[in-house]
Structures are given as C-alpha cells and as structure tokens.
Amino acid sequence: MKLNLQINNQSFVIFDVAMIGLAVLAIVIAAWAWFANWKWLTAVMVIGILILAYGAFISPRRLKITKVKKALSKSPTAWLKAVYIADLHAYKNKPLAWYQKLFAEIREIGADMLLVGGDLVVADTGYLDKLVDLSKLDFAYGKYYILGNHDYLDDPSEVRRQMDDWGFVNLVNKSKDVKFQGLDFQLAGLDETLYGQPKIPPRDSTDKPYVLLGHEPDVLLDMKEGQADLVLCGHTHGGQIRLPLIGSLVVPSKLGRRADLGHRVINGIPTFVSAGLGEVLCRARLLCSPEIVVLELGI
Q: Does the pTM of the predicted model rise above 0.85?
C-alpha cells in the first residue's frame, strides 16, 4: 500500500538554492573586502566558502568505520562480529557508485552478521535499485532489518518486499534466537515510532543476551532498565551538522542531545546511536561523516 505521507517535503532544492545564494554572497563580500583592503574579511569569507563546499560535496561522500565492543553477558566466552548500518536514504543525491563502494567496504570487514536499522530510502522506493548490492552480501549468521520513518513515506510494502527478496529477515516487532558458537542470544526489532506501531518483543530470559534494533532513539522513552542489554538506533544522523565544542545543532528526537550520537546510557540501557549513511533535507554533513558501525558482541 502506498502512503505518500510527506513525499513532497523531502526535496533538497531549498537547501541547494540557499547554499548557492550564500556562496554568491560570500564571493561578493570577499571581493569587496579585498578592494577595500579588509583582507581579514576576505580570508573569513574564503574559509566559509571552503567549509560550505566541504560540507556539501566532500563530507557526505566519505565513509567512517566505528568499532564498538560490548559484552552482553558478565563473562562472555564468544565474540560475534556484526555490521550495523542505518539511514542509507537512497536518492538521486548520491550515485550508484557510492553505494557500491559502501557495500564493498562492508564485505571487506568480514562480519558474521549484518543489521540494517531502517530508512532505506528518502521518500521514493524507486531508488531502492541503488541498494541492489545488498543482495550480494552474505553473512554466516544472517542479515536483518527494520523499517524507518522514511520507508513509510511512499510504499513500505515495497521496501519489505525488496529486502525480503534480497535475503534479509524482517525484525519489525519480532525477535529471533541466534545461536553462535553454541551460545544463544535474542535479536529483536521494533517498528518505527512516527508512522508505525512499535511493540517491543518480550525478552525470553534475563540470562539470555538481548539486542534490540529501534530506528528512533525515542523508543527508549518507554523502556526500562533490564529490557535490553543493547539498543541500536539511527534516525538522528548525529545531527548531520556538528560544530566544534558545540556538537549537533538539530537532533530530531525528544531526547535531544542525550541521544544524538555514539555511546549512551538511557533509562539504564546501553545504547549506540549511529550517524547513519545518508542525508535528508540538507544534503550536507559537517564533522559527522557517514558511518559503518562494527560491533563486537560478547556472548
């Protein structure tokens, strides 16, 4: 079923026009300042233009690998390596070659499992074909996904169909027992909070490690300590634009900066929030490169 919730609000055009306008204004001011012998102002404008160009054209195309080691039990005897990615946001702002590079990087990591935390597209499932190389990735302990809010903007059933065809296991409001080197842990997922109907799968046992995929960090608002040993989230993009000393400027979460990026403990639950891989509304990133998370989970 096609929903078309906010598809017309997901264009980069407004941002592009604003950035072009700012660049032209900065060039005019820099030229005027040069002839007015205000060389310091010229330097400031040139630095501003360079930062603008870096944020719009270079930073969003980079890839950062973040390694996270987390013991899920008191005395782990086996360590599972999983790759966690979120917010791919397939759209026309990034070429197919960028996604091919991303999936090649993931293949080289040699993980046991792949976890995808939602937002496969921006607002048009027609761009799912850019993610086709997901079908070529094989993992001994499987590949799993949940939906994000952007997956609901056009046709969530098409996102599910494509991911299922590519060999992924749908974890939306479901859980699965995974046996690794003779040890069991419970892997669960949630529907997203804006357009979905999230329902946390019950924990089988406090003795069995429990990892939960939840697209928005806001899922933690309704959770209590002990419900999960680790929650993995995306959605915030780490703020997408971060400034030195200040950090993220805008965080799309009720938790704000408490859950903008990286390691967090929320309601007593260890949490990791990924910077994600794509962008929305503003095509730029600054001090917040697209991120592949490599998890070492002790069982």
A: yes
